Amino acid sequence: MPLLISPKDGRIHTTLTQTVTATGRLSSLNPNLQNIPNRTEIGRRIRRAFIPEDGYVLLSADYSQIELRLLAHITQDAEMLDAFRKGEDIHARTAKAVFGAQTAAELKEKRRLAKIVNFAIAYVVGPFGLAQRVGISRAEARRVIDDYYRTFSGVRKYMEESPDRVREAGGVARSIFGRLRRIADINNKNHNLRARAEREAVNMPMQGSASDIIKFAMLRSDEAIRRAKLGARMILQVHDELVFEVPAGEVERTREVVKEAMEKAAKLDVPLEVEVGSGKNWMDAKA
Length: 287
What we know:
Layout: E1 15-17, E2 27-29, H1 41-48, E3 56-63, H2 66-75, H3 78-85, H4 90-97, H5 104-122, H6 127-134, H7 138-151, H8 153-168, E4 172-174, E5 180-182, H9 191-227, E6 233-238, E7 241-247, H10 251-263, E8 274-279, H11 282-285
Antiparallel strand pairs: 1-2, 3-7, 3-8, 4-5, 6-7
Helix pairs in contact: 2-8, 2-9, 4-5, 5-6, 6-7, 7-8, 8-9, 9-10
């Protein structure tokens, strides 16, 4: 990365493209700044190398569980809608409802598994994939999925019906805002290709709608910052996260303005929530 620093301004500049990913998300290249992990030591060290201009701090605003919130909105599952509307921890509710956690110790242990399962279901992972992720047998994974679908019956109905809806629509899936994605192999005679297409048919409304919302959020945040006459600059988008360079004296006001703009970027049947953090480098800015 030091070799990519521009001699003109001493900064690294990525290129964001709109037409590479099938889901509609922006992608980053030369270098790919969306692919720097924050859960590994080397990734954390790299993120700490990104610092703001003197007199500024970095502010990171990240949607919380946006794809699970979209799953609740799209499937209209009563249990999931209720959890998000009450501001409950969806992973804790899953730990109790699916894994039978009752005590504080059980909840702590099972919540980790519940989190894996919630995101696995959203990405249409089957028993084999879930078994690998959680470290259980395939038979146990099958039971977990069955228990999950019994608890969240609206999710199961959506999962079962989505591929047929895409077939009826001529092989096209849509985000909730109407953006299209063609699912080419939805009727393929090859089982593996058809199964992959069916997973894409289920996942497109969540992934595609999340990509739409973050673009709305970019526009609304920029507009709100200008309207508030703040000196913040949006410098990067990383999936569900926006990164800003903010004058040190305007951090709290910018935090309020960006959080409100992002949470009002779209109206769903569950609230959108944004976690905002700030710091002297990108790693420390993560909420």
